[in-house]
Please model this.
Amino acid sequence: MNKDNPINADYALLTPDFMLDAIESTGIYPASGLMALNSYENRVYQFTGDGELRYVVKFYRPARWSREQINEEHSFSIELAEQEIPVIPPLEINGTTLHEYKGFYFALFECRGGRQFEVDNLDHLEWVGRFMGRIHKVGQSKPFTQRVTLNSENFLIEPQKFLLGYEEIPDYLRLPFDTALNLIVSLTQKKLEEVGQCTQQRLFGDCHPGNILWTDNGPHFVDLDDSVNGPAVQDLWMMLSGDRAAQSLQLEVLLEGYNEFCDFDTKELQLIEPLRAMRMVNYMYWLAKRWSDPAFPHNFPWFNTPQYWEQQVLALKEQIAQLQEPPLTLPDFNF
Model:
């Protein structure tokens, strides 16, 4: 996204001793080892410090975000936390939330536990909707100036260009894959043009159920690493699952909570399938672009196999059909 990170692009340098030294450079001294957490874009570890306090340390992928972009995300997290919205902001240590050690940016967070959010629990879904409305109310107060914008150029055209030249796709799938990819890009752009301009605001950006942890006191939101400017519905559609009737019910419940704090423009319902298509294409692009990172072949062994690309051709064709269906509606929805 931005290329002025400190230049140490080799994650192999992040040995346990190196990371412990980096953490200790902030004045925090781990009393335990580092336990790797489920993260691929960055390197994230949990540890216990002095006084039995538990922390999470995130080492940012070099050359992805600039210092200014990371600081803008941190500021958004802190702004939300100051409004008593349950996000986990980075800790300010020695006057800063973003630290640098021998070419790597990193940040420290309080470690908070929780179980995965269950999207089929409608009471919980409404609760999340209320907090998302509060997040967006804050997000609307000003735009990001350093972070990227969720648009077709960044999340569809750039991935399309990369994938059309990606040499790992088997020869026998080249034509069907390229045909399906080009058609889904064309249809998605057409749909976006039909919807027209929507309000662009600061978003969580990657609000899927895995980034919402549940406790007895309700949800808290983790990992704003993909914060972007974009339409509000981007932070809602990934919590929908099942058939059309199930998604309509889930969306209605989400918006019942959401609209208590922030008005939702129902025109954005037309963006759900285009945004889903953009995410599909961008996910393939992300995996292909990161394949030289040893963590990716280890954690995604099914990628770059003929079976994987066959499945993607089918998935793209299914999404093409979805793009040609009427958008999700809420006929009985009133505020």
Summary: The radius of gyration is 21 Å.
